[in-house]
Design goal:
Helix 8 links the parallel strand 6 and strand 7. The strands form 3 sheets. A 7-stranded mixed sheet has the order 3-9-8-7-6-4-5, with helices on both faces. A 3-stranded mixed sheet has the order 1-2-11. A 3-stranded antiparallel sheet has the order 10-13-12, covered by helices on one side. It has 15 helices and 13 strands. Helix 5 runs parallel beside helix 6, helix 7 packs parallel to helix 8 and helix 14 crosses helix 15. It has 403 residues and is α/β, with parallel strands linked by helices. The two termini are 40 Å apart. 50% of the residues are buried. It has 2 domains: 128 residues, Aspartate Aminotransferase, domain 1, CATH 3.90.1150.10; 237 residues, Aspartate Aminotransferase, domain 2. It binds 4'-deoxy-4'-aminopyridoxal-5'-phosphate. The site of 4'-deoxy-4'-aminopyridoxal-5'-phosphate (PMP) has 14 residues, from helix 5.
Length: 403
């Protein structure tokens, strides 16, 4: 065996032994929310298609129409990849989020890495919530700034880190980055209080709105994300990263903010500059999705379903995390038991995410149940019945749980 093969085999064996091996299922099509998974029809409660727009006929029709403009954009934005449809989408995203301007990126991962790397360097300090998404963590690594972390949503811990950062250097740029809706917990960051602390310590604030855009907003802009939801001005929350691949049902991402920030990122964000622009079809489909998300009806339906899910879970004695969003995890703790419950649910006809470390901290493996506006109350009740049965069949062994 070559040393490369030996290295790979050892790492895979380690992962298998820890019950952390990933085995992605193969689906015939995106869930509607029904999914054909390896020949079986399952009801999916795991996608990020919170509004059910990925399979909406208006979105698909707009996407197909835009495909006539070219299967691909054929180049980066700065060369010849920037079509009228991209410009229209950027303008619409700015409008929906209540910001002056927006800039497209190919993925949320790239948007986070590119924006952070463009704004910070080695002399600077980045302050992150401990449960931030991997792409924010990698952005922090890439820019080379000093990394300070604070306990999840703990404002006192954040202030301690801000004080520490300012004491270290009066002149460093300090960036505070948080998920606005935490992807594996579903709870919201206390952004108004975080913004206040940022103002006090002259730190910049960036929110990752991947799970917020489209889902939360204001009555005027129901799809507007966390800035709209909390009523935060561009000055209070200057940098918003949103994705197109979750509630908007498509693919890609954007950063929204002041016209100056967006011009700066167009010039300096390497993950925007050195990559092919999104296919025109994606821009066309996303514009249609934004129109559908703009009326607020889908978000209202989703809220009704979230309330229904929570009250019906409580009625069955199922403990939930304190989330008011479409992400409704059930904390299990042990990886093996999480997998067993996930498999039991699959046998009963349901698909939920069994999330294990390193995606979540050790000892906090969980079922990540997500709701979509296209689910029905009856489907939710059926899932909860199956979940109650699976939980009672897979009770924790006394003393075996890490949490
Ligand atoms: N941020 C968060 C909070 C996410 O959950 C994700 C996707 N899992 C991303 C960023 C990355 O977005 P994308 O899938 O568009 O790369």
């Amino acid at each position: 065996m070559s040393s490369l093969q030996a290295f790979i085999a050892a790492r895979l064996a380690e992962r298998e032994a820890a019950n952390l091996m990933r085995r992605p299922p193969t689906l015939a099509a995106a869930p509607t929310p029904y999914a054909d998974v390896e020949g079986r029809r399952l009801l999916a409660f795991c996608s990020n298609d919170y509004l059910g727009l990925a399979a909406h006929p208006d979105v698909i029709a707009a996407q197909q129409a835009a495909a006539a403009l070219g299967a691909g954009a054929t180049a980066s934005h700065l060369v010849n990849g920037h079509l009228h449809l991209h410009a229209a989408l950027e303008q619409q995203l700015a409008e929906v989020t209540g910001r002056e301007a927006a800039l497209l990126f190919s993925t949320g991962y790239m948007a986070n890495m590119g924006a952070i790397e463009a704004l910070l360097g080695r002399a600077d300090i980045i302050v992150s919530d401990k449960l931030n998404h991997a792409s924010l963590i990698d952005g922090a690594r890439l820019c080379g700034a000093e990394k300070l972390r604070f306990a999840h949503n703990d404002l006192e811990a954040l202030e301690r880190q801000l004080r520490r950062a300012r004491t270290k250097s009066g002149s460093a740029k300090i960036l505070v980055v948080v998920d606005s809706v935490f992807s594996m917990d579903g709870d919201l960051a206390p952004l108004p209080q975080i913004a206040e602390l940022c103002a006090r310590y002259d730190a910049w604030l960036m929110a990752d709105d991947a799970h917020a855009v489209g889902v939360i907003g204001s009555p005027q802009r129901p799809a507007g994300g966390s800035a709209e939801f909390f009523g935060l001005s561009q000055q209070q929350l200057p940098i918003v990263m949103g994705t197109l691949g979750k509630a908007l049902g498509n693919f890609g991402a954007f950063v929204a903010g002041s016209a100056e920030l967006i011009e700066y990122l167009r010039q300096f964000a390497r993950t925007h500059i050195y990559t092919t622009a999104l296919p025109p079809a994606v821009a066309g489909g996303t514009l249609a999705a934004l129109r559908l998300a703009g009326s607020g009806e889908l978000q209202q339906r989703l809220c009704t379903l979230v309330d229904h899910f929570r009250s019906q879970a409580a009625a069955r004695g199922i403990d939930l995390l304190p989330s008011q969003t479409a992400i409704q995890p059930v904390l299990i703790g042990d990886e093996k038991r999480t997998l067993a419950i996930g498999a039991e649910l699959q046998r009963a006809g349901f698909m939920v995410g069994a999330i294990r470390p390193p995606t979540v901290p050790a000892g906090t493996a969980r079922l990540r149940i997500t709701l979509s506006a296209t689910h029905t109350e009856a489907q939710i009740d059926a899932l909860l019945d199956a979940l109650a049965t699976a939980l009672s069949k897979n009770k924790p062994v006394a003393g075996a749980e890490a949490s």
